[in-house]
Design a protein that fits this description.
single chain; 215 residues; alpha/beta; seven-stranded mixed beta sheet; 8 helices; binds S-adenosylmethionine
């Protein structure tokens, strides 16, 4: 998909609602302290890099992606941050280069997600957060089965337990995990029920966000 088309989805009514929810959840889990540096791995068009950096009052933001066109698009639309071409499985940064490291629905497209997470933990100084797709969600029933449809084709869907397992064996403290986007249609009913459904079935949102402190 062209970066322009991908980014335009976030400007649609449904995309803006979903993007906003995901961004707020990641920000809450990252618990930023203001002025911290941020790395966004698999940043795509830089939507979350831009939004998180702004919401967190980040000191400086960097985004990396394996797709050249996306990196060029992100750099054009966010001159205040640095964007670079890089494979999540081999990040071109020294150990502990960034206070906060995030990756949003990118590791579900990386064959060796575990290697990518270990790279994120290596370059992080304080906290790491992942956004992933929930196998225990209505969105999976709609878009994830049989190899996935549209933008979800080829994605790996994790259960909350899978996500906790991804972190196991690493020097991290207290993995916090939350889900959101309970009814992914994004219409009036979805918006009205999001809060109540999150309380009723907290592990069933389409978007899983997990974060942990790096030791
Ligand atoms: C669904 S998009 C998410 C983009 C962005 N994080 C967002 O949420 O808008 C997945 C992204 O992962 C990137 N990606 C896939 N494999 C990667 C790898 N090995 N290293 C870095 N990025 C990768 C793709 O190029 C794509 O931009």
């Amino acid at each position: 998909m062209q970066p322009e088309h991908y980014d335009a989805w976030y400007a649609s009514r449904r995309g803006a609602w979903i993007g906003g929810i995901e961004c707020r959840l990641l920000e809450a889990l990252l618990a930023p302290r203001g002025g911290e540096t941020l790395l966004d791995v698999g940043c795509g068009t830089g939507y979350f890099t831009r939004r998180l950096a702004q919401a967190m009052h980040a000191g400086f933001a960097t985004g990396t992606d394996i797709d050249c066109a996306s990196v060029r698009y992100a750099a054009r639309h966010d001159p205040g941050a640095a964007y670079a071409l890089a494979d999540a499985r081999r990040l071109p940064f020294a150990d502990k280069s960034f206070d906060l490291v995030v990756s949003v629905t990118a590791l579900c497209f990386v064959e060796e997600a575990q290697t990518a997470l270990s790279e994120m933990l290596r370059v992080a100084r304080r906290r790491v957060a992942l956004g992933l797709l929930n196998r225990h969600s209505l969105l999976w029933l709609e878009k994830g089965r049989h190899g996935g449809h549209g933008a979800y084709r080829g994605a790996r869907w994790h259960t909350p337990a899978d996500v906790r397992n991804l972190f196991s064996g690493y020097p991290v403290r207290e993995v916090s995990l939350r889900t959101a986007v309970m009814l992914p249609g994004g219409g009036v009913v979805a918006r009205a029920l999001e809060g109540s459904l999150r309380r009723l079935a907290p592990a069933c949102g389409a978007f899983i966000a997990a974060a942990a402190d790096v030791r």
